[in-house]
Design brief:
62% of the residues lie in helices and 6% in strands. It contains 20 helices and 6 strands. The chain starts with 6 loop residues before the first helix and ends in an 8-residue tail after the last helix.
Length: 493
């Protein structure tokens, strides 16, 4: 029994098992979040671990804390240039799309004898947001990419639709506890939350870039502390002024991701690793909170499967097609966006809100939602790659390279930065020696990736088709050099 063992040893074992599970997920093509939840369930009261954890308030607090860092990291790694063309469509999906999903789901749920119409809306609100982290984890493990603007659209939607789901869930709980609350009051509260969240996120992002650049820390190892303080201060300050903290940290991350400041690369890598740690902790805690014997109850499974089918085949497609009616996406892309409405950690976290409020149906609803998340990830996740190929919207996946050198923005780097350039087969520079390229002063090729080899270029090094070059130099000159490297050779007439 784990509860009789030293807590440090228990925590270390759970983290180690999660690390191994994360590595196995790519081989067995099962999302890591499912394995993390499984480890938590095995360590729980019904599993061999025997840990008895039933504190919904603690689980809710852990989930809120973890989700703030996960959203910030997602925003930090999002390039504004990628999402700018689809930002309007993404905002519509992350707001109206979530609302339509909740409303459409509430209709069939209200017909079930277990729930009244208010409980039905609460359930619909809880399962209304998507989890693209699971989507792209699956697409990455199955080596499938997406054409056009689909990837940035899904990333932006998943990162920005959680605030809407949180608001709808809290609104539904308020509606249950205070039946006579005016609808206009809730609408005004929504506008204030979103406006304050967006404004605070932008301001804190700009302020953070300015502060890191000017208030230099003597020891660069302390810069991750900057990152942690930024997330916590942004979330806490936004909630203090009645804004939406989740939206604020996501926008703050996007703003910082597009800014320039000291040790930006190191801070991004830190937050990427910290976000993974938060995911592991969050899923382990949620797994511990679940009682597996209750989840596999016949009533829970039958209701859960019915809700899952309505969500996957009715509610999500209806919401997507309504919200994209005036978009440039074709019907194939809309079908794929509809099917990528995977549910993940957020619905499970939101399912703890009724538990903390003492709702009489809270435990049953939590088990149903947990089952819905599992079926959504397993059924949709297993078929995403095949659907992308069937709809002919898949694209080749560019493998991430691990360079043997890393460069960061430091006090001495000025405007210098690195950039990767993939040479195309018919590029004009193919077959030419490096010394003949005549780059601007200050721009150089640091490394060349050729197949599985990395080489430091010399003057007589000949560029070959499909080489990847790691350039270093002034950021104003790098785009000019990139265009020159990608210029196609003129064909003989």
């Amino acid at each position: 029994m784990l509860q009789t063992v030293n807590p440090f040893l228990v925590t270390g074992l759970l983290f180690f098992m999660s690390l191994v599970a994360g590595s196995l997920s790519e081989k067995i093509k099962v999302p890591a979040l499912i394995l993390f939840l499984g480890i938590g369930m095995l360590a729980g009261v019904d599993g061999p671990g025997g840990l008895n954890f039933s504190d919904a308030v603690a689980a809710n607090n852990v989930g809120t804390f973890a989700l703030a860092f996960i959203l910030f990291s997602g925003g930090f790694q999002t390039k504004w240039s990628d999402i700018k063309p689809i930002v309007t469509q993404g905002v519509v999906l992350s707001t109206l799309g979530v609302f339509f999903t909740a409303v459409v789901m509430a209709i069939p749920i209200a017909m079930l004898p277990q729930f009244n119409y208010k409980d039905a809306f609460l359930l619909g609100a809880i399962i209304s947001s998507t989890d693209a982290a699971a989507v792209f984890s699956i697409l990455r493990t199955q080596k499938v990419g997406l054409q056009g603007a689909l990837k940035p659209l899904l990333e932006f939607e998943s990162g920005s639709n959680d605030p809407m789901a949180v608001f709808l869930t809290i609104t539904a709980i308020t509606w249950l506890s205070t039946p006579d609350v005016p609808v206009t009051e809730l609408a005004v509260k929504f506008v204030i939350q979103m406006a304050a969240g967006g404004a605070m996120g932008y301001l804190m992002g700009r302020f953070s870039c300015w502060a890191i650049q000017r208030l230099r820390v003597a020891n660069e190892a302390l810069y991750p502390v900057w990152g942690i303080s930024i997330v916590m201060a942004t979330f806490g300050l936004t909630e203090t002024v009645y804004g939406n903290g989740y939206l604020a940290v996501y926008i703050c991350g996007i703003v910082m991701g597009g800014g320039d400041f000291l040790y930006k690369y190191s801070l991004q890598r830190f937050h990427e690793g910290f976000a993974w740690l938060m995911q592991i902790i969050m899923f382990l805690v949620l797994g511990l909170l679940v009682t597996p014997s209750e989840v596999i109850d016949v009533s829970v499974m039958s209701i859960g499967m019915l809700i899952s089918c309505c969500l996957m085949f009715v509610a999500r497609p209806v919401a997507v097609f309504i919200c994209t009616v005036f978009s440039r996406f074709n019907w194939r892309e809309k079908v794929f966006v509809s099917w990528t409405g995977l549910r993940g950690a957020v619905p499970i976290i939101l399912a703890t809100y009724p538990l903390t409020e003492g709702h009489p149906q809270a435990k049953y609803m939590f088990n149903v939602i947990f089952f819905v998340v599992l079926t959504s990830v397993m059924l949709q996740g297993k078929t995403l790659a095949e659907l992308a190929k069937l709809l002919k919207i898949d694209a080749a996946v560019r493998e991430a390279r691990t360079w043997t050198l890393n460069f960061d923005i430091t006090p001495a780097s000025g405007t210098d930065e690195t950039r990767e350039v993939d040479l195309i087969p018919d590029a004009e520079v193919i077959g030419h020696e490096v010394k003949d390229l005549k780059f601007p002063d200050g721009v150089t090729i640091l490394l060349i990736n050729r197949g599985e080899k990395y080489m430091i270029p010399k003057g007589r090094t000949v560029l070959e088709s499909d080489d990847t070059l790691l350039l270093f130099g002034d950021r104003a000159q790098l785009p000019i050099v990139e265009r020159r490297l990608l210029r196609r050779a003129e064909k003989d007439s």
